[in-house]
Amino acid sequence: EVQLVESGGGLVQTGGSLRLSCVVSGSTFDAYAMGWLRQAPGKEREGVACISFTGGDAYYSDAVRGRFTISVDRAKATVYLQMNNLKPEDTAVYYCNANFAIWGQGTQVTVSS
What is the Cα–Cα distance from 36 to 43, expressed in whole angstroms? Predict the structure, then answer.
């Protein structure tokens, strides 16, 4: 079974950057699709970015394309989300997801205006 633990959230000003990390443990060979989703207060959870655990092509939502980058370090069994040029509308709890079924506990990102 795959387990996920996120870290790296925090408070940042508009235009700033953060890097989220998601450590994958357990049966990592069972992890094949990795993604980041977010949920803002009063809104539904939405997909942000996804990539295969072996690397390769990444996919982004229109809201973050060009500002966020998802990547995988298989040696560290870690998935990253580099977030640049952050905006107040990026404020949300960010969740790591594996195989569209397994969730981390979430990490809060707050962008002040």
Answer: 16
Q: What pLDDT is stored for residue 30 in this prediction?
A: 66
> Three-state SS string across 32-84, please?
CEEEEEEECCCCCCEEEEEEECCCCCEEECCCCCCCEEEEEECCCCEEEEEEC
Q: Which of 111, 108, 107 is nearest to 89 (CA)?
A: 111
Report CA-CA distances (Å) from 1 to 41, 48, 79, 104, 107. Answer: 30, 24, 17, 13, 21
For position 14, what pLDDT does the model report?
98
